[in-house]
Specification:
By secondary structure, the chain is mainly β. Helices cover about 10% and strands about 40% of the residues. Strands 1-5-4-3-2 form a five-stranded antiparallel β-sheet, with helices on one face.
C-alpha cells in the first residue's frame, strides 16, 4: 500500500465576498492589513494584494458593482525589488 500525499489545505474554505467598504474595513481592523498592490484585470475588475507587517497576505478581487471577494490568503509575503521594465 502506497501512502498518498495529503491534500493541500487552504486558509479559506471558499471564496468570501462582501460589500467593498465592509471588506476593506475587515481587512484593516481584523487582519491589520493594508492594500499594497493592485492591478486592473478588466474594466470591471481590480485585483488587490493586502499585506500585514508579519508577512500575511490576502488576494482580493474588487468588482465595479461594489462587491469584493477574497480569493486567496497566505503567509510569508515578500516584495520583490523593482528592476525596471524589460
Amino acid at each position: 500500500m502506497t501512502a498518498s500525499p495529503a491534500p493541500a489545505t487552504s486558509p479559506i474554505a471558499e471564496v468570501i465576498c462582501a460589500p467593498t467598504e465592509r471588506m476593506q474595513a475587515r481587512l484593516t481592523r481584523q487582519f491589520g492589513e493594508r492594500r499594497t498592490a493592485s492591478g486592473l484585470r478588466s474594466p470591471d475588475e481590480v485585483m488587490e494584494v493586502w499585506t500585514d507587517a508579519e508577512g500575511g497576505w490576502t488576494l482580493v478581487m474588487r468588482y465595479a458593482h461594489g462587491t469584493s471577494c477574497i480569493v486567496a490568503m497566505g503567509e510569508h509575503w515578500e516584495t520583490a525589488p523593482q528592476t525596471g521594465r524589460g
